[in-house]
Design brief:
The chain contains one helix and seven strands, in the order ββββββαβ. The chain is mainly β. 24% of the residues are buried. It has a domain of 76 residues: predicted glycosyltransferase like domains (Thrombin, subunit H), CATH 2.40.10.
Amino acid sequence: MAEEPNDISRRTSERRLTILGGRIYGEEGQRWDCTIKDFSEAGAKVRSDATLEMGGFVDLKVNKFEDLRRAEVIWVAGNTAGLRFLAKIDRAPESMRRLFALAKGTGKN
């Protein structure tokens, strides 16, 4: 189990703080509700009762926007995990513009 990385210099996109409902889907059909604590085009931090392992792969659904993203688990600390999306979010679709607008002004690098 790794701790949440504090080295923000490795981040490739701006993080936006949020509290959105989501669902994590595991490789073997497991499903867990989660809270998406922050997100960017490249990844997200989630809190859940899911049993996640570093290097594993999951699908993350943002409930409000019906968006499903394939992600790699890059760190786990207790019931919180960092996910890196395999494909960056495209802000062009209307639903993604609304998602990023929700957290406008609350971002951190």
